[in-house]
Amino acid sequence: MDAVDAARRVAESVHRALVEKGADPWHLLDFVMQEASRRDIVVYGLPPDDPQLKGGQAVFDRQACAILYADGGTDFDRAFLIAHELGHVALEGGSEDVVTLHVEPDRSVEDAPVGIEKVLDYGARERREIRMDLFARELLLPRSVAVALHVRDGMSAAAIAERLRARTSMVQQQLLDALLLPPSPETDLAPPSSPPPAEDPSQLDAA
Amino acid sequence: MQPSKFSSSEEEVLLAYSVEPTHDRATLERYLTKYPDHASALVDCALELMTLPAQISPVWLSESAVEAGWQKFQSTVGVASENLFAKLSPSAFKKLAVRLNINNLLLLRIRDRAIRAGSIPGAFVRQLATELGVSAKNVMGYLEGPPQLAAASSFRSTVKPEALAQVEFTDAVKSSQLTTEQQKKLLAIEE
Questions:
Q1: Which of A67, A125, B31, B34 has its CA 20 to 30 A from that of B23?
Q2: Residue A68, class by beta-carbon neighbours within 10 Å (0-12 exposed, 13-18 middle, 19+ buried)?
Q3: What are the pLDDT digits (tens) for B62-98?
Q4: Model-level pTM?
Q5: Alpha-carbon distance A53 to nearest alpha carbon in chain B (angstroms)
């Protein structure tokens, strides 16, 4: 299991834990706000040109235990930015300040470098940001949930996106990842009966 | 050659020099004066930096190493005022905001010196000083420094970070999502 798989497994476990506690996965902004609250993180939406965003779209401030995000676009855009920052906390322990300049909700998993690409095409920071985008997508709509909605309930990608008020391209990408990519040895596409244990951040760094 | 007052390692000195905004003669001479033991290495480093293309970062070290080098350099030459917030834990930071009757967002703006120091009421500065256990002069000295990126200067980005633009205290109060009551109290504070 590589770092991307590990990140997505953590995201799915967080998603399932939230649902078990009564969070509504169809209201994405409320959903991620509940996770932030559970972690005692305060969240502030700021005008995109607010200097405190430091030129980025979102910030995690370790000392203030706060997520600041550019309050523009749709609720989905807001939820994705918050989910991305939550990824830095969940996967890296939230021990450093982070400024996120750009997110891609419909990023292909192929953007996550493998093999020699890991050292040739991407810097460590780019790899982290890709991983956080994939974490965010999995937190908002785990692949196992997407597949269940599509295959079991017969919902199209557009129908899922409409109900989530999310981007159709993001839902399509999750379905493509779930249906076309080979599952990792540890990943069963069927919903697990219980959330997998959350990995220690040091294990993720090593992966 | 006089020995340096402080025993900084060569790597730390070169690191501090390499992250200086300019590498002109004055900067080099300042380092040579401070660190005569590392004169040869500093000159070599300066020559290498001069021949590097402008777009290539001269160093690639871990953020913690950069932070450690920078803090060491700051403490050695005493060029920057002490970060009064640096030692506050997240819980202490939160408690400070509560005691000041503000929220984390406004305290962030104050910490990052995103507010023009001259626009902050003196009474508020004195209250902040009391809570931090330092003098009002120290607090004012800190607030008058240049805007900074973040307490730990850890900045994960693919581009060069930019300093914050400073705003007036009243604008910061109005844009920090405080309650109406909190805003009224803060805006009513007199010098």
A1: A125
A2: buried
A3: 556 666 676 666 555 544 467 899 999 999 999 999 9
A4: 0.71
A5: 9
